[in-house]
Automatic annotation (TrEMBL), chains A, C, F:
Domain Exoribonuclease phosphorolytic: 30-165, 187-251
Protein name: RNA-binding protein
Localisation: Cytoplasm
Organism of this sequence: Candidatus Iainarchaeum sp
Keywords: Cytoplasm, Exosome
Cited InterPro entries: ExoRNase_PH_dom1, ExoRNase_PH_dom2, ExoRNase_PH_dom2_sf, Exosome_comp_Rrp42_subfam, PNPase/RNase_PH_dom_sf, Ribosomal_Su5_D2-typ_SF
Swiss-Prot/TrEMBL GO biological process terms: rRNA catabolic process
Length: 259, 266, 259, 266, 266, 259
């Protein structure tokens, strides 16, 4: 029954897209409304809830003391993790992370990491001994499609407000801070769905169900790409990829200004 | 605060607690109903620093089949803390504490639901702690109960809950983290069905005399009833007006089309 | 077939309890015979098998060297674990511990921990560097109900005979001991089943199958409660809880004398 | 004992071993039958310091269905060591050693059972080591075999087992831990069906010549047969008298009501 | 090599790269078809230092039943690195990187197969990396695609793949490890169906301008087509002659007895 | 269908063996052709692919820095692991290692370890602080029976070519080596199947399916046995075991010469 309803929704989404329209009235290259609430957790070093239309995701950061890797003694690191938390959708389940959640985590992670917006040397406390590990954890809260972009914005927002705890004698002093996490850029992910041979940005859940292929572009700033991820069983032509890149720069620039 | 040693703190001084509350005063409590679009029911609770989200999915078919109960619905409450909701990052995998809390909360909620009306199904209740400062399980439980009501699941009563206990020799309602860390702290998570005062969840940690227990349960039940009012008010805010409108639009059939909603709030 | 037999047993247990009687002739507030065999393992630092009627459980302790937690540099710790070992019942299975085993472990653990009968500072060897972790592990051996109380007695008995290994240069000297584990109190768990609106202590397996709700009370000594756990889908009234507390103090006092 | 270095120990001196035993002498062995009320069959074994409990559940339906064998019962022996049964606390999760031992013990026991009579079922055999000092797998195996007999499962013969091997250049029966730790130690867990002397379990660790092997297997089989007598005696103690009584009470039907019991001990 | 710092290396000097290659030159590539007897199809690829084995099992029934898709075959590619294929021993358990690569490779291969002809089945593709030096996922993918052809699975086209990217400011084909470790390195794994130039796999890591991207994709597609020739040649080596023989022996029926083989290489 | 074919193959294997013959024409005590390719991975410290007839398995070694066990401060260690990798057979699956893979690993490990061909003291770098752990990992590549012997030869071959990385300041210097792993003996496993009351060496997959029992003998050199493993549900007589031992010494000697 439920499946039938979704099939009908998918059919009408495809039909509309063929005519260059979308169910919710957006242009093909238009984002849904982005709403960001910052500082939703006092315990986190930084946090944010992002609403992308009805899609909602929360991000929080924790700064943890660690030891550096043997081959980068003067560098800390970051780690981004996303869980398809069952609170967000009747089709998510608890259990060990599945491929979809791992892909989501790793694409958001790469989008930030590869932009080099964080200098890992800034995360060094004592060379060879103690460094910061910035954990950014994402939990899905309501699924209406495109957790990639919503998650990327949430992760960035949480990182932008992240405070660095004060360290004394190699230990964190609780509730005291020595500064803020430095980000030199604002990397942003833009995700596209290929539906009926058209490219739409920021797909809703219905559009995701309709898509043949997915493509995500991360722009580090207005001039640099920093990550790609093609997903799903369909394919893209070179010109479609180029179209996605153009739009990603344009939309990235707009969103970046608001952060 | 860090300068003072725990055993030098006066946890109640001139009738005021460390955060300025009276001994029988709850931390500020705010409940919002219907916050997750995809869920059948949901609620968001802010209780002091605690921030909790709850969603209900179901009743839906219990799978695999061998877990089905032909006489009643399974109530599967899963309580989880976000990694960033505690001072040191929590391991993302559910810990033993979370599994135990999930179990006792499932049992408490089951008592409040007419589970016998939904054989072979399960009702999933997901509780996510986004920020924490003592008392997350009771915050999760009241959010879950409101989410069940929001899902239109027929219920005997809401589950109202609070923490109660001891700090610095005083019996106090709704302990915060600083009070929970008192050297003589006792923490008593308590949940009741307010209509009958039946106790559906009760745990306790710490040294307590019989007399202290009697004071605690007295105070705890009073606290639960305060919480109950906030729960009802939150539901009324969403459904009170909606029902008025419904009543206007459709006349005698209103009761039948939303029968479950009516049962749950009284 | 098996189920039918158990249903009949449950029915007759309920019927009897309504009349204030029990299948095995006990009073509602009477324990089954408690039999304790100590020192059943030479390898363990302490051990005991407890028979509570036909219910049997074994506990063993190991003293392990560890490092203190950052926020309690002068304290060791204890850890109680119970497994619903399939040797004890046709309905137990191997596998990762399920909620029931975790609850059992944690309730027994809290009963001991919260009594403050062990001063965790006694478990410190070198402040900030080396402490004792007291592992108490319980294995079910035969299930006739109420592993809570049987396990609590077994854990306590094993701890009461626990020897502390001698430590030299930060290492354990095998088969030599520096003393015994100090317990200032003898915390005991009393578990009640609510069946047909009556309260019975120390339920058998049949009574557990008949129960609407369960309530466990841990008394640290003759004057102090130290832990509660309400379980199962039923509820208790305040006066039922008070009744359980009264009986728990009474029975706790009696059992405590025999340990 | 700790003062003397291992390579200075004389493992056999004037015909006596470090614990006073002769080279062909078992450690004290005690078997008790029927110690776990809920199990279909059970046994408790004390063998030197080793303490072992075994329980049998089944034959019962093998689930999930796809593991069923339409020609025979599955024999699933699970060997586990209690965390406190070894000098350093064992991780509660089963290790690779326990899984391997469970496999070879399952196979050894399967040979002793008329598994072809119970298609689509499984026979679960749980073995728990409570205290250990070398030779736990053979102690577990003989406990398991007696437990199978106690469960009334039709068997070709009991499985009798012992360790045998080398320490300090001497071939000795039933090594204890100190002997197993000898620099030249060889440990050979051996299990046979005593009636036919068929070898159903055989493992070996350590350097051994062909001649030493011949001495070892000789001694090992002798040892198994001694163990066999203790196993039979333990069963006789429980069933011998019971059967006498049964024989008195019910006359010709005795054989039919307990057919499985008779098969198992000869 | 270790003496020179990474930012002092000239990655392209006089048109030559650190290993002597030209900017648009692949590392030596060798493909062997049909190397695993038990598999339905298999291939071995050596690409520079990378050594990869791929095997295909299926189409076979997808189990458990609830994973079956009534409209198409599931393509389940599992990419794994041997513990000894990386400088520091890899944990034997599959890591998150391996799981992500398995997912994108499964999706890329699915596009190349007529999956709609095999409803309710799954096609397992196992890829094992035995030695590595940058570019293992594309090496695995081309091995997998050849193995699928070897298994006689009807395909739209082979999947041809290569790495392309940037090091020391230069856009180069098929980066090796040293190039991938350049301070400004960009790695772009790319896979296409060569007939139509459809892009079926595309990932990217590192800072790249639009102009650099255009050069990269140009070079990458050229590279894929070179790879494609090697893939076809490898299949021809096994099947070309076999088919000639078949043609001689059996006449008109040749086409029907091996219909799937024909589809796959064009 | 597949099963029927295998049943027929098993039947004909059994029939032949009763007449003292084998499907592939070998004598009962004859090995298949052994083909060894060394140095198949540059990244590994040592590696080999072994073909035993159509059975194929690959082994690779990694030398990893570790800390010594408390009770053997001057010794390193080895660790042999084998995976029944699904690339090799339609009946293998991914997932946590099952009993069969664990037995295979442990039997190959014991065959090497118990031969004392590696002096663990040679693996000590700094007493009490740093030692080598020699990881030998095996992956099945094609299953035509007897991974025990093929794996044993592969593990030994990989170890024989294993280079020891150079260590400076407690860290491995990449791509530099201080010498080779020393093996004083060449331990070899010989595996026998009991089929129709006959003993055959080096069983193929069909013969494994036909076997009642399996027996593996590891010879450390031409005079010493060093490990046994009896497997499967059948039994052996003493004289059958002795026969296996005789053949194992004979075949071990021959193979040892070729390594």
């Amino acid at each position: 029954m439920d499946d039938v309803i979704w099939d009908l929704r998918v059919d009408s989404a495809v039909k509309l897209i063929k005519e260059g329209k979308r169910i919710d009235g957006r242009a093909l290259d238009e984002y849904r409304k982005i709403d960001i609430q910052n500082h939703i957790s006092e315990t986190a070093e930084g946090s944010a809830i992002v609403n992308l239309g009805k899609t909602r995701i929360v991000a929080g950061t924790k700064m943890i003391l660690g030891t550096p890797y043997p081959d980068s003694q003067d560098q800390g690191t970051i780690s981004v993790g996303a869980e398809l938390f069952p609170i967000a959708s009747p089709s998510f389940e608890f259990g060990p992370p599945k491929a979809a959640a791992i892909e989501l985590s790793r694409v958001i992670d790469r989008g930030i990491r590869e932009s080099k917006s964080i200098d890992f040397k800034d995360l060094c406390i004592t060379e060879g001994e103690q460094v910061w590990i910035v954990f950014v954890d994402l939990y899905t809260m309501n699924d209406d499609g495109n957790f990639f972009d919503a998650g990327s914005i949430a992760a960035l927002s949480a990182m932008l407000e992240t405070k660095i705890p004060k360290v004394e004698d190699g230990k964190i002093v609780k509730k005291e801070y020595s500064g803020k996490l430095k980000l030199s850029k604002k990397p942003l992910l833009c995700t596209f769905a290929k539906i009926a041979n058209k490219i739409v940005i920021d797909p809703t859940l219905v559009e995701e169900k309709a898509q043949d292929a997915r493509f995500s572009v991360s722009t580090a700033d207005d001039k640099h790409l920093c990550a790609f991820q093609k997903g799903e069983q369909g394919s893209f032509t070179r010109s479609e990829i180029d179209e996605c890149i153009e739009i990603a720069f344009k939309r990235g620039k707009e969103i970046r200004k608001t952060l | 605060m860090m300068a003072k040693k725990k055993d030098e703190i006066e946890y109640v001084k001139n009738g005021k607690r460390v955060d300025g509350r009276k001994v029988d005063e709850l931390r500020p409590l705010k409940i919002e109903v219907g916050v997750i679009d995809r869920a059948d029911g949901s609620a968001y609770v802010e209780w002091g620093q605690n921030k909790v989200l709850a969603a209900v999915y179901g009743p839906r078919e219990a799978l695999p089949k061998h877990i089905q109960n032909p006489y009643k619905a399974l109530v599967n409450c899963q309580y989880r803390m976000a990694t960033f909701s505690v001072p040191d990052r929590k391991n993302p995998r559910p810990g033993r504490r979370e599994i135990e809390i999930s179990k006792v909360c499932s049992e408490a909620l089951a008592k409040s639901i007419f589970i016998e009306r939904f054989p072979n199904t399960k009702i999933d209740v997901f509780v996510q702690i986004l920020d924490s400062n003592a008392g997350t399980r009771v915050a999760g439980l009241i959010a879950a109960s409101v989410a069940l009501a929001d899902a239109g699941i027929p219920m005997r009563d809401l589950v109202a809950a609070t923490g109660v206990g001891k700090a610095g020799g005083e019996i106090i309602l709704d302990l915060n983290k600083e009070e929970e860390d008192a050297p003589d702290a006792v923490d008593i998570p308590l949940a009741i069905l307010p209509g009958t005062e039946e106790i559906v969840l009760l745990q306790m940690d710490g040294l307590l005399t019989k007399e202290e227990w009697k004071k605690s349960i007295e105070l705890g039940i009073k606290g639960c009833k305060q919480v109950y009012e906030v729960q009802k008010e939150a539901l009324r805010k969403k459904y009170g007006e909606a029902e008025k409108e419904t009543a206007k639009a459709r006349e005698p059939s209103a009761k039948e089309t939303k029968p479950k909603k009516e049962e749950k709030v009284n």
